[in-house]
Each structure stands twice: as structure tokens, then as C-alpha cells.
Amino acid sequence: MLFRLASRNLWRNRRRTLLTLSAMVISASLLILALGVFSGMFEDMLASATEQYSGHMVLANPEYHKRRDMFAALPEQVAENPALLQATAIKGRSPRLRSFGLLSRDDSSQPAEVMGIRPELERQVTALHTKIVDGSYLVDDDPHGIVLGEGLARKLKLAIGDEVVFVTQAADGSIGNDLLYVRGIFATGDSRNDNSLVLADLLWLQTTLVMDGKIHEVAMSVGDPMQAAAIADKLNRQLPAETEVLDWGDLLPEMREVIATYDVSRMIFVSILYMATGLGILNTFFMSVMERTREFGILMAQGMRPWTVRWLVMLETLLMGCIALLIGLALGVLMTLFMATVGIDLSGHITPVTYAGGTILPRLHAVFEMSNFTVPAFMLLLVCLVAGFLPANRAARLDPVVAIREE
Amino acid sequence: MSLIELRNVSKIYRTGNLEVAALSDLSLTFAAGEFAVLAGPSGSGKTTALNLIGCLDQPTSGQVLLEGRDMGEAKPKELADFRLQHIGFIFQSYNLIPVLTAAENAEFTLMLKGVPHVKRRQRVEQLFEELGISGLEDRKPADLSGGQQQRVAIARAMAAEPHVILADEPTANLDSRTAEELLALMRDLNNRRGTTFLFSSHDDRVIAQARRVIRLEDGCLHDDTGPLS
Fold it and tell me: Counting one residue from A and one from B, how many pairs have CB atoms under 8 Å apart?
């Protein structure tokens, strides 16, 4: 009956309850949406930093990690090391050789980073093959085909099928150069990649650089990027000393900091929003308790313990919190679903922003992350309990004689 | 042993620097089964005496003994439990809980005592039958007349079978015919069940119905016809 009494009390002042309830619903659902969009933004940043270039982990000679020394290369067979093959968390391994040089067409040249890859293996690590906006992605056994970023293609006025010359320094001190043909153009939204990156055949680059059978790194992808550091640690204990595995956090420390501070900033954001909501709840229930002072006196006169009076008011706030939570969650899920599937394209208004090694794309899109629902839900109920405690305590501490005299 | 005993009880209310003596050195005893009225004009201390007997308030000095137990040192939780187990209240303004139905109001104390729903409902139906308000179980207080509301209030006070029922001006808001009916009803319950009724009133027609009349004036005992032998 206490529950029945609490639920009926909730609707005594229907308008006031609905107003408070709507404030709670709106804050909870918007919070869920906002957190989903934040997560989407971080996912974009992490994806741009890893899935479009480095992968989640990179195995290389420690000297190559430090100085990008082209001579600090590894044998290609390192990609088949048993430690890597046995690590089930690793979803893809792509051996790469990298070279920096000039890409020329007619009388114009641009600096470029040419990355020699095995196209089918690279697909398992990066998502560049999904970013093709013209032509097609590289295929195996196409030694002179290249795929390049749209910024670079624009600067060199390149189209599909065009011929370009790549000039670089080979490992033996000679000048390495060759003719290449544009097979595809990609657009990642990350200006660093779009303006300088060129994907070419690994074998061709090894020959051009006179580095037969050599690679600079093995880029790897894992199921859960947040586990990359732990997997890298484990691999480093198993692999020989002349190799070192760095996770995306080591390669992009600023990005790691951004991700690490996300949880803190999320709690601050949730706290600020719910503080305002909590004050609304506090006001509603203080008013409600003041209006029912006489009634609480009667309940106490009949033998209701102060603790039960306190629980009755807390139950009312909790009930309101649960109703707000259910509606807020439903609305939040629907809005997040919309933003996850449709989203809002802002490319006509703003350009991509590269920050902390990742790129914030000109779009608003959300991702589903359990904590984006559990944190607002738990906090809403906590706010209800805290906001409800003061009026509940006031009701419980009423002097029955004074309360009964109250008009 | 007396059911209720007031020993040299005084109650002083303080408002700022002003002290008002609501009761002065009042000593009374009530035996089980009495049907007594505390009579006197407004401000004579009737309600204060009922509040002290009902464990709603504590005396400034003196002792209130209920079933031999001094309630002066009891904590709020113990006082609440004692009220629940031993005392029923009937108020001048009925004071039913507006969001509960008549039956739910009446069974509220039984719910607080942890009596199962079915037994609660049986008890309430029986009481409603006795009080002549059968069929009104599902009505909200706002849909009942003053007399009907006060009958529900009596059912609420009686439901947990307390040893004593305290009624503060129970007929003050009722017309004379309804007031007389209710008094007859309370007296009937007192006769049949032996429940002690102690009520306050300044209405001579009500006072005339009581078997014991205690007159208070300015917080002091003025006259007591004494308990029935």
C-alpha cells in the first residue's frame, strides 16, 4: 500500500509532476544522445588515426620507431612470427615498406609518402579501401598501380589512368625512380593522408628501394582497440629484442590522453546537467512535502515510523525517476539510433579538424556504447535519491503535534 | 493497574520569550473500558492532554504512564510503535488521506502492522458493516459526506483494535443529528467491545453522552465526575 500511496501522491499535482518529469526526460534523453555523439566523434578520431593509416598496433625495429631510419628494416618473414600468428586477438597483419620522395606529373611535383603494401593484407588492417571516391583500390599483382589521396591528386591534376613518376633515394645510395599509374583516389577526410599518402605494391617498392625481402613495419588490427596496449605488452615479452610493438596510444600519445580524459569529462558533463535537474526535483518535492505537512502528521499519529515517512517520500522521487528513466532511455535510444544510422552531414558548413593525431569529421553521428546509457541512468536515479532525501528528511523529522495543527 | 495515568503533568509552550502553560499539575487516571470526555472551553488544555496521552507530545514536567509504562524517555520510533499498537485517533477534521479510498484509509494502520491484504479487507468490511457505511469502500474521501468521512475515520481508529481511542472534538464539524448518531455508535462500540474512548468536547450535548466528565479550565482540573465503579 505504501507503493500505491507513493504512486498516487505523485499525481496529486499533475501539472507540477509532468513539468518536473519532462525536465528529467529531456535531460536524460539529450544526455544519452550527446554522449552517443561524443563517442561517435572519438570513434571517428580513433578510426582516422588507426584504421586509415597506422592500424591499432605497429611492429617495427625500435630504431625505425624512433628515427624513421630507412635502414632499420626487418625481414618480411617477421610478419609470420609464431607469436603474431598465435595471438587470436590480432585480426589482421599488413607488412609495409615506406619511402618518402617526389611524385611528378608533367612539370609539377609534390612530396609524397609511398607505402608499399600487399593490398589484400592491408584491407585487414586499414579501411582505406572503403574510402575510394574514384577508380578502384589496389589489387595484388599490379606492380605499377597506385592509389593516392584526393588532395595530392588535385594538386597534380591527376585522374584515373594517368601516369606519374616517383623519385626517391634507394637503400644503395642510387636514385630510385619509376613510372606509376593511378588506379584509384581515396578521400579520408584527414588532410595528412589525403595530401601526401600513396599506396603502391610492396614488391615494386622493395625493388625500387633495393630492399628485397625487407619491410619497415607490420601494421596490425585487433578486435577491441582499447585492448591494444595490453596485447602489445604481451607481444613484446614474446618477440625478439630487435622488434618492438607499439600500440596506437604509444604512436599517438595525445589521442590516448584525449580518450583517457573522456570518462572524466563525461562525468563532469553529466553532473552539470543533472545538477540543474536535481534542483527541479528538490523544488517539486519540497513543495509537495510542505503542502502535505498535516497529512504527514496524521500518518505519524497513526503509528507510521519516521523512517517509513522518509521512505514514502523517497519512494515518490524514485518512482518519478524510474518513469523519467524509462521514457528518457526510450527517447535517448531512438535519437541515438537516428544519429547512428542517418546522422547529420555538416560538410557544407565546416571542414575536417585534425586534433591529437585524429580527425574530427564534419558530421554528427552517434555510436551505441553501453556506458552512454548506464551512466546517465545510474546518475539520474542517484540525483533523485539525493534530491529526494532533503524533503524526505524534513517530512520524517516533523513534530506530529505541530504538523497536525498545520492548515 | 490503570490503563492511563497522568502524574502531576504540566505542559508549557514557549513562543519567543512568552511562556504559555497549557496544562498545570494535572493528575488523572483512566481505567480500561471508560467512555470519558475532557470538557472545557477553547484553550482549557483538552487537546494538549489528549496529545500527551496519545504519545504525540511530551510533558514539560510530570509523568504520563500508559499501561504502567512511562513514555517520557521513549524515542520517536518507540512512540510511533506504541501508537500503532495501542492507540487510535479520531480528529475533528476527519483527516483521511485524500488519495486513498475509504477502505484503504481504514486499513492503513493494519498495513503498518503488517497484516496481510485479505485479512485487512475482511476486517474493514466487518467494521464498515458495523458503522453503517458498507458499499462506500471504494469511494475517495472527497466523494463522502462529513458524517461518512468521520465514520471511516472511526473505522480507521478501530481497525487495529487499539486499547484506547482518542477523539479530539470528533463531532465539531458535524450537524447535530449526525453528531448524535456517531456518539451513539462510539458508545455502542465501547459497550460491546470494551474499547476505551476518551474524547474532548465543549458541546454540552456530547458531554451529556459521556459516562465520565472531566472539566478543565486554564490547564487545571476543575471537576471530575470520577471513573465508574
Answer: 68
Query: Where in the sequence is the domain holding B146, given as residue range(s)?
Result: 4-224
Measured between its terminal Cα atoms, the distance across chain B in Å is 15
Q: The domain spanning residue B164 has which CATH number?
A: 3.40.50.300
Are the C-beta atoms of residues A17 and A320 closer than 8 Å to each other?
Answer: yes
> Residue A300 is nearest to which of B80, B98, B104, comparing CB atoms?
B80
Preferred mutation among A4, A12, A302, A308 to probe B, highest tally of B CBs within 10 A: A302
Cβ separation A4–B83 shorter than 8 A: no
Judge whether B74 lies within some domain.
Answer: yes
CA dist., res. A137 & res. A122, Å (int): 11
ipTM computed for the complex: 0.89
- The two beta strands, A132-135 and A175-186, are antiparallel
Q: What is the pLDDT of residues B117-131, one digit of tens each?
A: 999 999 999 989 988
> Does pLDDT of B187 surpass 70?
yes
Give residues with Cβ within 8 angstroms of B224, minimum separation 6. B28, B212, B213, B214, B215
Establish if B229 belongs to a structural domain. no
Q: How far is B229 from chain A (nearest CA, A)?
A: 31
Structurally, chain B folds into a number of domains equal to: 1
Residue B213 in contact with residue B37, Cβ under 8 Å?
yes
Partner-chain contact A295 B76, CB within 8 Å: no
pLDDT digits (tens, 9 = 90+) for B29-45: 999 899 999 999 888 89
Q: Are A367 and A40 in contact (CB under 8 A)?
A: yes
Q: Which of A303, A306, A404 sits opposite B112 (nearest CB)?
A: A303
Closest Cα in chain B to A396: B76
Interface subset of A 6-25, CB within 8 angstroms of B:
8-9, 12
Which secondary-structure segment (H or E) carries B63?
strand B61-66
Three-state SS across B185-207? Answer: HHHHHHHHHCCEEEEEECCHHHH
Contact A174, A210 (CB under 8 A): yes
Q: How confident is the model at residue A322 (pLDDT cuts 50, 70, 90)?
A: very high
Interface contact A305-B80, CB threshold 8 A: yes
- State whether the Cα torsion B123-B129-B133-B138 is positive or negative: positive
Q: Is residue B20 part of a domain?
A: yes
Stated pTM of the model: 0.73
Residue B151: all three cell numbers together: 465514520
